[in-house]
């Protein structure tokens, strides 16, 4: 299978999963018509998503998996969800970062996408508790070859700590490192966001570390696609009014956008920033 075919499969499966979650279930024949692919292709997609625990197959289609509030998918499993939305969000979020800023990026697949869009912003100081994010900047620093850093490449501070399934470093070591630092902007990925629960995660230690990151930042920007709205993890770590800006994608319904703006001052919809 070529790289293009792989990309198309990931995008198609993300659309299937979004449809399952939005409608509470789908049938194979509906998906074949909507996506203009064969019955066998859809069944292979459903098999792949079921193996990852993203949905449950039923006769003739699929339904959502009812996840426990403590369930935390791994980085690879989350990477296939909403890839184009995450890239749009990352591009819009990167536009908020001026050269020379001190910023923090939490763990997550959306912040990982953001890191790649920040490589062209010169002279950044980046604090992160994400192994994946740190790797993006580390590889960029060595891009010039010869073991020397690329001119203008970001300086990265990686916290220590215990590693979560999503490759974030959390716990007392990470918390102590973060508390001693101060940064202009925090870009925060979240497991769930809602009016009632605010920002939440299934990992208790990650909730504490995320809280430390927020308290060390002058401005907090949540980067999360529309599927995170209404999701609630085991532990809440912030109310919506503690967030300065939420950068999301065009899948967020208009009614939800209005509700969000009642609780936080800034909402950026990637591709619709003028709104």
From TrEMBL:
Residues 9-64 form the HTH deoR-type domain. One of its GO terms (molecular function) is DNA binding. Pfam families: DeoRC, HTH_DeoR. InterPro entries: Carb_Metab_HTH_regulators, DeoR-like_C, DeoR_HTH, NagB/RpiA_transferase-like, Tscrpt_reg_HTH_DeoR_CS, WH-like_DNA-bd_sf, WH_DNA-bd_sf. SUPFAM superfamilies: NagB/RpiA/CoA transferase-like, Winged helix' DNA-binding domain. Keywords: DNA-binding, Transcription, Transcription regulation. This is DeoR/GlpR family DNA-binding transcription regulator.
């Amino acid at each position: 299978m070529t790289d293009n075919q792989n990309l198309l499969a990931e995008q198609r499966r993300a659309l299937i999963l979004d449809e399952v979650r939005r409608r509470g279930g789908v049938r194979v024949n509906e998906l074949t018509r909507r996506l203009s692919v064969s019955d066998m292709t859809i069944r292979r997609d459903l098999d792949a998503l079921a193996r990852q625990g993203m949905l449950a197959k039923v006769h003739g289609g699929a339904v959502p998996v009812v996840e426990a509030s403590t369930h935390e998918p791994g980085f690879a499993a989350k990477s296939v969800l909403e890839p184009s939305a995450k890239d749009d969000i990352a591009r819009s979020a990167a536009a908020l970062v001026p050269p020379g800023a001190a910023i923090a990026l939490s763990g997550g697949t959306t912040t990982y996408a953001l890191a790649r869009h920040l490589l062209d912003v010169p002279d950044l100081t980046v604090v992160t508790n994400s192994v994946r994010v740190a790797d993006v900047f580390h590889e960029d620093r060595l891009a010039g070859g010869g073991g020397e850093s690329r001119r203008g490449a970001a300086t990265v501070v990686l916290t220590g700590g215990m590693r979560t399934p999503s490759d974030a470093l959390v716990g007392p070591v990470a918390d102590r490192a973060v508390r001693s630092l101060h940064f202009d902007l925090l870009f925060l990925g979240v497991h769930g966001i809602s009016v009632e629960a605010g920002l939440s995660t299934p990992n208790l230690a990650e909730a504490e570390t995320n809280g430390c990151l927020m308290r060390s930042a002058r401005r907090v920007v949540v980067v999360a696609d529309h599927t995170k709205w209404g999701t609630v993890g085991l532990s809440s770590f912030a109310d919506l009014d503690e967030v300065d800006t939420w950068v999301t994608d065009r899948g967020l319904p208009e009614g939800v956008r209005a509700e969000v703006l009642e609780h936080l001052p800034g909402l950026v919809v990637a591709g619709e920033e003028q709104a």
